[in-house]
Sequence to fold (531 residues):
Amino acid sequence: MAPPAAQPMIQIIDLFKSFGSHQVLSGITLDVPAGSTLVILGGSGSGKTVLMKHMIGLLKPDSGRVVVDGEDIVPLGPEGLERVRRKFGMVFQAAALFDSMTVFENVSFPLREHRKELQEEQIRALVKEKLGIVGLKNVEEKFPADLSGGMRKRVGLARAIVLDPKIVLYDEPTTGLDPITTDYVDEMILDAKKELGVTSVVISHDIASAFKVADNIAFLYQGHIVDQGHPTKLRHSEHPAVKVFLSTWFGKN
Amino acid sequence: MVPAVSTETTQLSPPPPRPPNPFTQAVEAIGHTLTKTVEDIGGLATLLGDVVRWAVRPPYRVVNLMAQLDFVGVGSVLIVALTGVFSGMVFAHQSARAFEMFNAKSLVGPTVTLTITRELAPVFSALMVTMRAGSAMCTELGTMRVTEQVDALETMAVNPIQYLLVPRVLAGLIMVPLLVMVFDLFGVGGGYFVSVAVKGVTAGTFISRTQQWLDPEDIAEGLIKGAVFGLYVALVACFKGYNASGGAKGVGQATTEAMVLSALGIFILDYFVGVLLH
Fold:
């Protein structure tokens, strides 16, 4: 676990968000200490993705604050947000690779956008290094459509970490993967934290995976964080929704 | 007393839902279409503002612009030329038949040429570009939206309007007028061929009468219309694709809406631009 005194990398304070008349997030308050991994656990439609999209400024809250690395990002305009987003890498649920580009072009894309001083060989080397971290080689010239779901996800992670971000966001990284690939992705998240020292936020409904990678778990239910803390604390939560959710896994194991 | 009784009745048995009234339904449908149209116009205007704002600030996406110029313009030359040749031929054939009746075949040349340069070239070129390039733009952007590729761009601190939309809208604005020129050339060529080789108008008459009637302003009118339509159809394709939602079905629906809105808009704009230019 990260040292408790560390300043939080992401701080969410009393966040409210509704779409039309549908209240999705109701007063979320959450800290993510620097260098730690937070898993936001919850069922479908609990507002996990909406919460994550607020962290990187893809959505603006109705009220509340989102503080990233000491800066409130809610009032920022497009230019300010672009600056803040360079601190982030995001791994999407279905990888969201650019399907008109090869793996190499996908992973090198952020470098070409934001590190214009790099030479072609340096870009090649960096792409190779990051693909190595996620356990891929000789895939540079393939197109995303030619890769398996697990490989696409790994390319997505390579693309997310290619600029050495401070924070990596994972949107349901293990959904739809077979158990072996799931295990691999879990290791990948742990490695990224260990080797790159990144702060990670993972949204998931995969309980096994959550308990494996998390330093802290926050349980989201109907737009509220109903319980949060160290995984062992969550394991013995008294909240009925948490108990029901966790019993689907721990009840059988 | 009376209100109390009526309340009690309501509580006991709520009135059965009325059968739908066809008249109210029709009014609702019209109202819905109107609201949607107003929303679309507002959305297009806002998007145009965003596109202009992001077009003038660096980085300039030259590579993307080149790719779109190639796709929208170069890729459409053949179908625009073919449409042009056959429109010119059909038009010459029909107008020759009509003018024959009162022995005025010498007017076929100017009639064909003026109609092509002022009206047919911009309208048909824009329709062909809508069909070929607009539909592809809309589905591509829609698919990128629903598979979160647009979100991915944003999280990588790349503005999707600047990266994706600006090159496409510029390509429409620049390339459709050029395609109008291609249409002019091939359309008049087709008209000349049918008039002279089939309908027995002499080459000298066709050319001299056309020179007599055709002014540079007529060609300019077609080019201005082409620019307006090109901007419009690219903007509509981008607007519908960029705001698509709801998976494959949503992308399909967005493309249908884009095609309808583009084609209708071309004819409506054609009238108003024509009026404004005179």
In short: Residues 1-10 of chain B have pLDDT under 50 and may be disordered. The first helix of chain B runs from residue 2 to 12. Chain B has one domain: 61-277. The two ends of chain B are 72 Å apart (CA to CA).
